[in-house]
Amino acid sequence: FDSYSKLTRPAAQVFLRIILGDDKIKVRNVRIQSFIRNIYGHSSQLDILAQDSKGRYFNVEVQRSDEGAPARRARFYSSILDTHFLQPSKLYEELPDTYVIFITENDVLRDNLPLYDIRRTIKQSTKDFEDGSHIIYVNSQRRDNTALGKLMHDLYCTEPKNLHYQEFAERMEFLKYSKEGEEKMTDVIEEYAARKAEAAAKAVEEYAARKAEALAKEAEKKEQTNRIELAKGLLADGMSIEFTVRHSKLSEAEVRELASKLTA
Fold first, then answer.
1. Which residues form a coiled coil (predicted)?
2. Domain residue spans of the chain
């Protein structure tokens, strides 16, 4: 079972309360495998996207490889949440608080800590720069008897009877042993596969568009170089500015600049 398949709304609430150390968090909704399209660049498929009663958004990513949790990926996910949730008519002050939480299989930041709470600070005063963005790394190797350690155990455990938190155990029991749960899990797997295929197709489409744009720019650059070389040749042969403009397809200003360089 994937870790995020266990995150129903009650389970997500327990999850966030433990990680953030806030027992007052009330989760309003949870979306699994939420695709956020970026028309200007790289799009993203978020493992888990939750919202609480205060309007804050929580993106949880479960990463099994160290390569999947670089600092710049966390930065990008934070920025894509901002651009997605601030509507055109809204003020910057209305931008919701966001939390990007990476659950990593290994201690990728290598300070042997169970949790890394990363925030922007003012370098000269070391005060927090309160812009509402938060990045958190959780080291899932630390599965001790603390609340966080037990939570990490439950995320990776596949036996309901061995889970510490009832919210996770109930979900796992339902998915693993009930007929309805089996059908639900089949639906989840099929939906997951479909979303992955859709995301892959969109990624290919976006890559092809970027590649086509790059090739077009390269072709235009090459064409411009050819125009310049032709203009230089015509000017060197004594042709007039007007003649060179007409045959090289350069602007008059560009041709005059070339002419001034040739006579300098």
1. 197-224
2. 3-177, 204-263
